[in-house]
Hints:
With 400 residues, the protein is an alpha/beta fold. The protein contains ten helices and 16 strands. It folds into three domains: 190 residues, FAD/NAD(P)-binding domain, CATH 3.50.50.60; 106 residues, D-Amino Acid Oxidase, Chain A, domain 2; 49 residues, no CATH class. 33% of the residues lie in helices and 31% in strands. The strands form two sheets. Strands 1, 2, 6, 7, 8, 9, 15 and 16 form an eight-stranded mixed beta sheet that branches. An eight-stranded mixed beta sheet has the order 3-5-4-11-12-13-10-14. α8 packs across α9. The N and C termini lie far apart (48 Å). The structure holds flavin-adenine dinucleotide (FAD).
Amino acid sequence: xxxxxxxxxxxxxxxxxxxxxxxxxxxxxxxxxxxxxxxxxxxxxxxxxxxxxxxxxxxxxxxxxxxxxxxxxxxxxxxxxxxxxxxxxxxxxxxxxxxxxxxxxxxxxxxxxxxxxxxxxxxxxxxxxxxxxxxxxxxxxxxxxxxxxxxxxxxxxxxxxxxxxxxxxxxxxxxxxxxxxxxxxxxxxxxxxxxxxxxxxxxxxxxxxxxxxxxxxxxxxxxxxxxxxxxxxxxxxxxxxxxxxxxxxxxxxxxxxxxxxxxxxxxxxxxxxxxxxxxxxxxxxxxxxxxxxxxxxxxxxxxxxxxxxxxxxxxxxxxxxxxxxxxxxxxxxxxxxxxxxxxxxxxxxxxxxxxxxxxxxxxxxxxxxxxxxxxxxxxxxxxxxxxxxxxxxxxxxxxx
Length: 400
Ligand SMILES: Cc1cc2nc3c(=O)[nH]c(=O)nc-3n(C[C@H](O)[C@H](O)[C@H](O)COP(=O)(O)OP(=O)(O)OC[C@H]3O[C@@H](n4cnc5c(N)ncnc54)[C@H](O)[C@@H]3O)c2cc1C
């Protein structure tokens, strides 16, 4: 970059979504100089999310739960088979429906109150290297169309699914079509929506390689969306599937808004760090590859990143070797489960509709026999696979 001013900081965080907002706050609270660069003019806007998050207990260690961004409590989940029979499990308080824009803004406010500097409409366009290590970023300030550079002891890619830090630093590559779900969602207004239950509809005929979600938003509102795998949805688009679903189930609802976004569905990265750089949240593929959910994963990833970054900054050692403690900690906390969900995704969403009907019917029986909260969905699905005649054999063929 030429003709650019250079400033220095301890950490530069690219992206002020869930992961970036939390991590920035935690580092700033510990006394480090943190600059957050967010390319959007307004944090969290437009919302690109189904807005189903964890429970009050799960969220509150990260940010005090605030009724300004909570719209409903989730007390049950229903999964509909292609033949529209369903399995339902009630577990009161299992999650919250949130206003995602306000949630991201609350995390950013917390970060700035703790001392982080947040710059909106500032887009990172390149990473800078010195002797092979990442030493900062090049930025365009879209507010006045100027360019500048920030030199940082550590650069964080918290820039989500479309992020550039991972690619520019060589940690990630563009996602292949089979690794990304095309997500599309209406905010619907009308009657007949669930109020405290999240509903999932599966089947190739409904959403090839993914599912349709109906999530309550209170006040006669619901987020109704679809995620499809483009490689499986050969002829129709995500919009065709979504419109078909809405026409059938909520023909009188008003379509108030339409949002689109990609959701990664890959295994987690083996390494999320290199000399002077670290990835977190969806940029590091922290999402649950089965559900696509990533809000809680981004918070947890940021928590692990914070812990290791503080140690590394204290030691003044931001080398790959030093930051690898984050790889290790994250994989220990979440890696095994995410791998299991990735496997489940490979199996479940590729089933033919008839087989899916059978699996969900067995799932219903297993769930009914269980009492209390389900703690491991992969075990539950695994049991359903094993006990559904013929399906395990087909599943083996899908994998090997
Ligand atoms: C349609 C859809 C529905 C979803 N529904 C749910 C759900 O119901 N529940 C759930 O848990 N998860 C859901 N997800 C996934 C969830 O939204 C993500 O996992 C989560 O947002 C990841 O958080 P993050 O902080 O890693 O990234 P993000 O929240 O995506 O934040 C990344 C930020 O980086 C910014 N950025 C990107 N590039 C640059 C750049 N070059 N310079 C500066 N800034 C940059 C972006 O503008 C963005 O603000 C959904 C996703 C989609 C697309």
